[in-house]
Amino acid sequence: MSSVVSGATILLDGKAVAVKVRGEVAARAAELAGRLGRPPGLAVVQVGADPASSIYVRNKRKAAAEAGIASFAHDLPATTSDSDLLALIDRLNCDDRVDGILVQLPLPNGLDASRVMDAIDPGKDVDGFHAVNTGLLAQKRPALRPCTPHGVIRLAAEYGIALRGLRATVVGASNIVGRPMALELLLAGATVTVCHTGTRDVEAEVARAELVVAAVGKPHFIPGDWIRPGAAVFDVGINRDATGRMVGDVAYDRAAERAGWITPVPGGLGPMTIAMLLSNAVEAASRRAESRSG
Ligand code: GUN
Asked: What are the backbone angles phi and psi of residue 100, rounded to the nearest 5°?
């Protein structure tokens, strides 16, 4: 990937790499469509109408269609019960046209996200959130991999950032990003520290890291001065600051003066997450086709 250089810092262009990944996905989708006699299918389920979720869901459905993946939209009211949602998951699990199932999180209050994740067929779990897929990643046997962490790994590879032996700090320990990110970095051979609400000195853990992944969900949680000179900084945060501007978890301007590589927000891991979701959809379709023929 060609690099935009600002001073001595390389901007990690997630938008450009996502275009490349989506091109690869479109080629695989076309090949699969020829082989299966139907396009790969992705069901995207939204419960309720959280405005941020609605934007993400719309972008995912549009990106799927553009890559030649059939998109099945299911929009349910916020009042949906656990049992109605589980019945829909059951139908999608059994529907042969559907290779991937994504239920947008967070779910409205009262719905049990863990139960819903547990109900998705692990072979169709394009988010990689099912305990089976998390367990396979933990055991160095990755199958369907969580999209944002996988996006970090792909972006690093595109820019030739060697992860083996690197001292990496992940800030945030969520099931969606922080935990699977730590497993991905471990798989890649990094030495990994995970910071969470119990961490005594987050600054010290960030300051010695050669690679930082920020996944906190708080605008400018990490001051730029914490960044070790030359470090690779991956900012997963998508937040609004007091003026309504979209900002990451890292105070970008100062961090960019110190970092060796840094992702912008927007234009970093947001587009990569969608690209890796589409990649998982064709991966799921391909694995399902193989398991039927083999
Ligand atoms: N909410 C925020 N990020 C994600 C994601 O990657 N997948 C799903 N399903 N919900 C999310």
From this structure: -135, 145
CA dihedral 225, 230, 235, 240 (to 10 degrees): 40
> What six digits make up the tokens of 67?
């890559």
SS3 of the chain: CCCEEECCEEECCHHHHHHHHHHHHHHHHHHHHHHHCCCCEEEEEEECCCHHHHHHHHHHHHHHHHCCCEEEEEEECCCCCHHHHHHHHHHHHHCCCCCEEEECCCCCCCCCHHHHHHHCCHHHECCCCCHHHHHHHHCCCCCCCCHHHHHHHHHHHHCCCCCCCCEEEEECCCCCCHHHHHHHHHHCCCEEEEECCCCCCHHHHHHCCCEEEECCCCCCCECHHHCCCCCEEEECCCEECCCCCEECCECHHHHHHHCCEECCCCCCHHHHHHHHHHHHHHHHHHHHHHHHHC
Tokens matching residue 43: 């069901």
How many angstroms separate the CA atoms of 278 and 18, rounded? 10
Distance 32 CA to ligand 1 centre (A): 26
Confidence band for 292, pLDDT divided at 50, 70 and 90: confident
Confidence check: pLDDT of 63 > 70: yes
Q: Is the CB of 104 under 6 A from ligand 1?
A: yes
The verdict on the CB of residue 125 being under 6 Å from ligand 1 is no
Point out the catalytic residue in the list 104, 125, 235, 249: 104
Alpha carbon of 271 to ligand 1 centroid (Å): 13
The model's pLDDT over 3-12, given as tens digits with 9 standing for 90+, comes to 666 679 999 9
User: 225 catalytic, yes or no?
Assistant: no
Q: Residue 5 — left, alpha, or beta (φ > 0 → left; ψ -120 to 50 → alpha)? A: beta
Signed CA dihedral, 54, 58, 61, 63: sign only: negative
